[in-house]
């Protein structure tokens, strides 16, 4: 019985070994699975060289081209005028902005005029005797002298004798002293230098104004300037008179301006050059923040592409017979998202959008818009 059991176990082991050998042989001869190549679809564009307008983006806030900071050169009490001295108040050219009480100083000026008149009148008898030829013109001067008006210009001296005589009596020094006081008297009234609007008022009617005190700011709201900083590498592209399009931050308003001035020096800290853009519009206000695109130069025989299409090696991808390749290009201008390049032959098929993991020799399939093909065929 024992021999029968051992014979059965041996038969089973032999059968199992044979089956395992057959399975191993079958798996060895089985062909390897075919790995299908992945062909990526890419967006392409055909190069047509042309003239590319290079624009330099910048931004800044508006400042009135004509603005005046008002300061007092004399001391006095601010008197009430026909218009309130308040921010937003408009004044026409020549209207009184500020008028200070000058009654005390006015009396001093009148006293000096009187002294000048008396000094000339005192020498008239001597002029009649010693200088009869010039007596009449000095008499005419006295007749035209009005103490309520500014002192008239002294008669012209015809000879050295007359000059020595008049100067020796202190007439000339008295005259210039009067003119000096008249000039100072005029500073008690500040007139509007141009038609504009008051943007800042630091004093009120009835307050005491001191010498050197700032009174406010006055601007012309019809013309504004925007100061922009441009990299020194683009300085040679800026041209005075070049048209500039200005837009608001929310892109809802557009204004037209032009480059009015370009600074001749480079800021040593930022290595930028300041350009000034002049703009006129009734909607504009001082301090408004705008964006500007400066039309700097027109680059011929060039194309504009996305910056991510330009490789670090100054090359771009092209498609040749469904295979990616690279060619050398010459970048001439970089903006925030675009780059202008040259030396790309017309008719070259380039990538329109960058392909992740792209490399030279990569198999690709250009994207074809079937809807456009059907429309063109119809």
Automatic annotation (TrEMBL):
Domain CusB-like beta-barrel as annotated: residue spans: 227-297
Stretches assigned to the Multidrug resistance protein MdtA-like barrel-sandwich hybrid domain: 66-215
InterPro entries in the cross-refs: Beta-barrel_RND_2, MdtA-like_BSH
Transmembrane portions of the chain: none
Pfam families, alphabetized: Beta-barrel_RND_2, BSH_RND
Signal peptide: none
Full protein name: HlyD family efflux transporter periplasmic adaptor subunit
